[in-house]
# Entry
Amino acid sequence: MTNGQTKAVREILDDLIAPNPMYRLLQGDVGSGKTAVAMVAMLACVEAGFQAALMVPTEVLAMQHFKSFQRLIKDKSIVLLTGSNKDKATYDAIASGQAQIIIGTHALFQQAVTYHKLGLVVADEQHRFGVNQRKAMLEKALSPNLLSMSATPIPRTLAISLFGDMEVSTISELPKDRVPIQTKVVALEDIKEVLTFCQHQINNKKQVFVVTSVIEASESGLLDAKRTHEFFAQKLTARVGLLHGNMVNEEKQRVMNAFSKHQLDCLVATTVIEVGVDVPNATVMVILDAQRFGLSQLHQLRGRIGRGDAKSYCYLVHQTTTDSANERLHFLETNHDGFAIAEEDLAVRGPGEFLGNAQSGFPQFRFSDLFEDVKILQVAAKDAADIVYNKELPEYHMYWEYLVQQVGEKHDQNRD
# Structure
């Protein structure tokens, strides 16, 4: 493990043996080894006699984690629970405690699932789960220890406002053998250059990802997955596959397995492959209509390659765009630090766009600017903690009297 991983493991294990439940965010750049840290935490929980659950946003990622855990952990009972992969035997194994590690999607917190002794919940790509979904999962646990993970580094400005009530572990380094990905911005009219390079890599037994922002053709003029699949299949001498969100789960898994086993040379996909997909032999990432994506999402997609020993390459292909959008894309040519990219993304797009409109519950402040007012936020977060944990100090009596008036005495019982 890297120093960052080791430090994160120690912080998590210290939390797990503490009298209060863990409420920790583990964040790190793409490929920094967060899953390995979570695996250690889950094993520690199982060794202590509890069950541990890993909740992920997609079935493709759930299946990949399931196979990885099975490969690395030989002496524990591991089960997979998803919308299309559930049966009575799995439910019974979870309820009886026979299943020690449970990996799955939203199916993990459905009403039909009863856990024997769930002690740890790990939420991978936690921002993809709503507050109520995480709450529903924690209510399944005896002692609701929560480890949230994010491969999209949260800028410190957002971390303070969004996760001020969480402890944060940050893995700031990548494995020493990780080779930086060469990134190039290309106009759509120069796509021939990209095709030539893809063919060269395929001829050298390497694989290629091609990502589009939409599945089917529309009036928007964006390059869609279905027509892009036909185009690349026609232009390349290669086995070209297609993967998108409208496909049935069995077909998604079949295509992903074929690509993982190098039965496909090129995979045209939507952002369904953004998170967690691990194919070390893939050395090229082509992102079409790159001007449509945020910097952090582009960095996430870029992180699907560069996982093997070979040099990897990312092409950001754009249609006619503004100078500012072009400048934003060129930022990625020279920047590979996910935290620096996240800060830039926040500065350019603002907090609402950074996290997306689907993030219900995101604080839309009327009088403050999350990017400009970071120092005020830091002071406010520290003051809030001081008030909560130093009730006896005379200077805080007025705050506590106000809290009692607003919410009653119960706030004191639950403050930890």
